[in-house]
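User: I'm putting together notes for a lab meeting next week and I want to include a structural view of one of the chains we've been expressing. I don't have a solved structure, so I'd like a prediction I can at least talk through. The sequence is below, exactly as it appears in our construct file.
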Amino acid sequence: MDIATTIKELRESAGMSRKEFSEHTGIPVRTLEDWEAGRRTPPEYIPRLLAYQMKFEGVFTAKKKAKDKIDIVTDPDGNKIVLINDILFKSRRLINWDDIEQILMQYIGEYYEIAETAEKVYIGSDFPDEFTHSKYTKAIRGANEKAKANVITAIGELIQISDKKAEFPDYGSRHGNKAKNGWYRYDTRFGIPVYSEFGEIDRYNIFRARMLVRCDANGKLFLYDIVQIKKETSTPLE
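Assistant: Thanks for the context. Below is the predicted structure for the 238-residue chain, given as structure tokens.
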């Protein structure tokens, strides 16, 4: 892979435009354009430095920016939908789930309240690994995979609007005290933007998903994974 392609993929992996990438790294927009177009060649060490910065700073900056652009709306049927207005993963390149796991680590210890039931759902240390490396995650492809990767900025909101609670036991006590009091399933919905050729939001693809929540020996609820992601429609809101 040449240097120009490496730099472009680093920028796109953080979901940043050239202007945003320029503001974050201090590299002039014109220089980025020349590098990505192959008109100029940066020193070989530049991609390595950028990769380091994006891994430990850039992605988290983009995540914070995206967090400020999340809305909860109600569709004509009265259902709540979390709209993620600025997604992290826009390109078609392969998603690095190991990087996503690192991002999710910062949620550990936090909790969010389900509006319908007033239940508190905590984020435990097992959530980042299960979310990114479960059998379900390894099996999904295409739009569903991209959708799951992009919900990482809206974990709290997805918990907040969840509904249709269903309870089931921990069959065979597979999870020990971590699910001593069984499992809960909740439904949740979210929207991923579809961009026009000018980079503006054209519409939203709406997805339905199911949250798996374990109930530990102390009766405390922990988010375990988000599964059964399925696209509903691309034009839910007028």
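A couple of points you could mention at the meeting. The mean pLDDT is 84. The beta strands are 70-74, 80-84, 111-113, 120-123, 163-168, 183-195, 201-215, 221-233.

User: Perfect, that's what I needed.
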